[in-house]
TrEMBL record:
InterPro entries on file: Ostalpha/TMEM184C
Localization terms from the record: Membrane
Full protein name: DUF300-domain-containing protein
Protein source organism: Debaryomyces fabryi
Listed Pfam families: Solute_trans_a
Location of region: Disordered: 401-422, 514-535
Keywords, alphabetical: Membrane, Transmembrane, Transmembrane helix
Amino acid sequence: MGGESALPSWVTIISGYSSIISSLIIFSSIVLHLKNYRKPFQQRLMIRIQLIVPLFALSCFSMLKNPESLFNRYLLESIREVYEAFVIYTFFSLLTDILGGERNIIIMTSGREPVYHPGVLKYLLPAVDISDPTTFLIIKRGILQYVWLKPVICVSTIITELIGWYNVNDVSATSIYLWLTILYNLSVTMSLYCLAMFWKVLWDDLKPFKPVGKFLCVKLIIFASYWQGVVLAILNFSGALPGSASTKGHNTNIGVYIQNALLCVELIAFAIGHWHSFSYKPFNISAIPNGRLEFYYAVKDMFGVKDLVHDFQLTFYGDYYKDYKRFDSVEATTAHPESRGRMSRINQGLRYHGDGKQKHWLPNNQSPVQNTTNVRSTSEANALLYQPLLGNALQYSPSLNSTGTSTRGIYPSSPKNITPPDSPVVPASAGTFNLINGPTITDVLNTNEISYDKELLDEDEIYYQNACSVINNYRLDQNEVKKLINYPIVDEVVDGHMFGFKVKKLRADRLRQQQRNHNNVSIDGHKNSSYGSIA
């Protein structure tokens, strides 16, 4: 066949135009993202996912046009397949970032009931407790192993094809093509299964972000490229495809031509799906009324790889996930004391107080698992604030003196005031807190030294309520809303900070207006007094 396609010319023409259309759709979406680059961490990942469509279009059409080209077979095709694996990991990173990052996910899911595997796997595999950093690392490695293994498969394919051992028409037990296909199938199945379990465990948290379309876009384009190829290879081997008989004895597969032609046409639907699922609209000025990166810096950020290198290193070595203190929060509850994440924290020195919720970490020299990092819990950090005033009387949070520690975090039915092994001995003293010199906050507020008459708190409350009533609508087409939304907004903490910024600005404007009015009155009074003296 030489370097020409085995399909009719009209198929090649339709495939070419389809590839151009799908690429234009994606490039338009990417440009709009770059012009509305307000959340770099999320949009960078979305752009990386969308780039798979033009890469598929270029690869499929090139292979359809000239399948014997060394550039197409050994370089372009390999890049496409490796990037295909990379997109699965990128989608996982996007879901993680949407939920606030890995640490936030682990803290957020603390105390939840572990999720069982589907079908018979629930009898073979332990339930998934994603609040355990080790379990989270296993899921992440299960997804990332496909990215690591795919380049090895591609290099093995190239080497065996160069020495004549690789034949796509041979699916016998001694076929290199068959075993590499099986290895590839196992790897991609494990990766997608881990991604699906991550999806299942956090489904309720992901629902507000409408992730179904995103998941289908990523999964379908990979399955379309893989399973279409497998089915067509079997049909070609069995002689069911037209023209398959003419390829017997040659390292050519008519199914490969058909697969590339089908993908070129299917990419239009995939491009439209990517346009809607990874849209720029949630990042435009109407949705996020704050600044954006300039186009040049947005492009530069899009092609940055430092985040990938850093994350790959953390996942490969895994030491970051072994320190449970990094993923601790005082808000975590004790709803499921049998969970793996909870027991692992207990083994590293976590102790709960009498109420079962407040907690502290044992010093490193008392912890059953030694650790070199010194990350203090919230209760320890708060206790240290009082330590200069209390001397050595207080080493941990005040609740330790008032309630004592117990094993309630592990066994909820255990009685209070029973100290677990290795807990620090802190002498309780009724007058401990009397050692603090100076008045309390309540005493200061109740004194007559501070006058609140000029604070105008009621007026601030009116401004606050007005801001609450309109700010979440982001109706920037209305002038009154434009005047109201003229303060900085931080992407990830909008709900917590935006009203405070507004009230502060309104108060400053009011003070400036009062000062301006006072100056005008003074000038007018001076003029009137001057006129009176002349008269």
